[in-house]
Design a protein that fits this description.
The complex is a heterodimer of chains A (61) and B (344).
Chain A: H1 2-28, H2 30-56
Chain B: H1 6-16, H2 29-41, H3 57-86, H4 89-101, H5 114-129, H6 133-146, H7 153-167, H8 175-184, H9 187-200, H10 205-208, H11 220-232, H12 240-262, H13 269-284, H14 296-300, H15 305-313, H16 317-339
Helix pairs in contact in B: 1-2, 2-3, 3-4, 3-5, 4-15, 5-6, 5-7, 6-8, 6-9, 7-13, 11-12, 11-13
The chains are: A mainly alpha (61), B mainly alpha (344).
Chain lengths: 61, 344
């Protein structure tokens, strides 16, 4: 139990570094963060759906 | 999975240049940039002209990189423009979100000119708004080298200059800059026409080859009436999917037209001029018969003031949710269909 909690605490401390950096950057550059968010999410959406489309759909006749 | 339909023509131009024939309908800036990036990726060696099935990695990767970078730039510029226009960060965010999830927005992720054209036109409008006339002219020149519709930025620039002069914002000291911007704006198209004259002996080849793509010159209203006719008569279409696509593009065309008409008082005069001229150019030479309205949704999706208007309306949570619920599934479906060579 203690080992599990220690591991979680360590993970939280490790995670705190990048998440704090991201929060700082978003606060510093809110416009860039907004554009990046939309850009990255829609690219991911395209590639995920394209991957499944390529896998599951037959080629157009 | 990126290289489908028109993307293959852009690939061919980027590796092998122009030849007499239908390929001159595709404007040069996107393939030129792709060729440049491919040369860099190849260690400063020009890409080899191979059929796309045997293509090297560099030219394939280059087209995708150019499309993604242009799209990122386009979203950045649109965010800036919407922010300056509305003064509200949430509205600006919604404007780029709606542009990015538009049903045909998957073209922003493929080696098509949509992203580059959106970047160049929005950047030109942003520069006009900031009264940076030379910069506006340079971006307009890039737009007119990307697609024929880019030439519409010349009358738009004239309107903005006229309005600035009437408001007293165009001082005599700025006239030379305004003149340079105005002269620069059509240069992209003019240089391409000069190149075509030298290469294929016909400066208007890009226009004359439209019939090779099944297009015919018609009065814009005729195209709309024909589109409605086909939408109301499913039995006129040769296949259900052709009918469904025609109806979808007709609905999108009317939605854009409706938004523009509803925004007559809200839009800047330059937006209205750009929108009206874009409709005329697109409907001037539509594909014939049952294909009349096909692809119109894609050609219209670069009419960015529509996204700013929708973003304003999107302050209502119900409207925002409705846009997401309509657009996101269609965006996903059309992305999946595109990679399997289905036309949308």
């Amino acid at each position: 139990m203690d080992a599990g909690r220690r591991s979680t605490d360590r993970l939280s401390r490790v995670w705190a570094v990048p998440s704090s950096w991201v929060r700082t950057q978003v606060a510093k550059h809110p416009n860039l963060a907004a554009v990046l968010l939309v850009f990255v999410l829609t690219r991911m959406a395209f590639y995920i759906t394209a991957f499944f489309g390529n896998w599951m759909l037959p080629e157009a006749p | 999975m990126h290289w489908r339909w028109d993307a293959v023509y852009y690939y061919n131009i980027s590796v092998d240049g122009y030849h007499p024939g239908g390929i001159t309908a595709f404007f040069p800036l996107f393939p030129m940039l792709s060729r440049g990036v491919a040369t860099l990726l190849n260690g400063l060696r020009l890409p080899t002209a191979l059929p796309i099935q045997e293509a090297e990695l560099a030219p394939l990767l280059a087209g995708i990189i150019v499309a993604h970078l242009a799209t990122f730039g386009a979203f950045w510029m649109l965010h800036q423009l919407a922010l300056e226009e509305t003064g509200d960060r949430d509205t600006a965010f919604r404007a780029i979100l709606y542009a990015a999830i538009f049903p045909f927005a998957y073209h922003y992720a493929t080696p098509y000119t949509e992203g580059l054209f959106l970047l160049t036109t929005v950047a030109s409008f942003l520069a006009m708004r900031r009264k940076q006339w030379v910069r506006a002219g340079i971006w307009a020149a890039c737009a007119s080298a990307t697609r024929f519709a880019g030439i519409l930025l010349v009358p738009v620039l004239c309107v903005e200059l006229l309005l600035a002069w009437r408001r007293g914002d165009l001082q005599r000291v700025n006239w030379p800059r305004a003149a340079i911007g105005l002269v620069t704006a059509p240069l992209g198209l003019l240089l391409y026409m000069g190149y075509l004259w030298w290469r294929v002996g016909d400066a208007f080849s890009f226009y004359h080859v439209q019939s090779d793509w099944g297009r015919e010159q018609t009065f814009p209203m005729t195209a709309i009436v024909r589109g409605i006719d086909y939408a109301l008569h499913p039995n006129w279409s040769s296949a259900p999917d052709i009918y469904a696509r025609g109806v979808l593009h007709t609905i999108i065309t009317f939605a854009f037209l409706g938004i523009m008409l509803l925004s007559i008082r809200a839009w800047r005069l330059s937006y209205l001029v750009y929108g009206a001229l874009l409709f005329i150019v697109i409907l001037w030479s539509p594909p014939d018969g049952e294909w009349t309205m096909h692809n119109l949704g894609r050609y219209l999706m670069i009419l960015f003031p529509v996204y700013i208007t929708l973003a304003r309306w999107g302050r209502s949570p119900a409207f925002h949710l409705a846009v997401l619920m309509v657009c996101v599934p269609m965006f996903g479906l059309f992305s999946a269909l595109y990679v399997r060579w289905y036309a949308a």
